[in-house]
Amino acid sequence: MSAAPAYVRFRSTAANARGVQVGVFALANGLAHDDRLDAAQRRWWRAANDWYDAAYAAPSADEDGPYDRDRHPGAVAWFKADASHLLERVDGYLALLDAHGVPWERAVSDDPGRIVYEDDVQVVAVPRATGEAPR
Question: Are 7 and 112 in contact (CB under 8 A)?
């Protein structure tokens, strides 16, 4: 019997113009920013984002952070599979995406790429080039 994968990510099914499959939070935020949420959905989205903001620290998005596009092209966040308190709340985001016809997928991996940030609940990793071996 194989062990459970170490990392989980919920993301778009297709890559954006930069070649990145956008994560579930960015997808939901896009719906909100495009004013596509009704009043109840907007209240839920705001409360859910506030809960996540309080529950764990988001990696820095500044120019020296793990999302720096020049230093870490294509870097994306993955939950650690044992971060159950965070993962169990993702279902609400998935329901929101479903309600608006936004396709998503669940990805799992033991090797999400070259890790450029890590804390107790997540990693940010740059996907490996095709054929690049894990280090």
Answer: yes
Q: Strand, helix or coil at 19?
A: coil
Show pLDDT as tens, one digit a residue, over the chain (135 residues): 557 789 999 999 999 998 999 999 999 999 999 999 999 999 999 999 999 999 988 887 666 789 888 999 999 999 999 999 999 999 999 999 999 999 999 999 999 999 999 999 999 999 997 656 665
- Spatial distance between the Cα atoms of 88 and 71, rounded to a whole number of angstroms: 32
CA distance 124 to 106: 16
Threshold 0.85, pTM exceeds: yes
Phi-psi region of 62 (alpha: psi -120 to 50; beta: other; left: phi over 0): beta
d(CA 99, CA 90): 14
- Helix (H), strand (E) at residue 95: helix 90-99
Secondary element (H or E) of residue 124: strand 122-126
Q: How many CA atoms lie within 13 A of 28 on its CB side?
A: 24
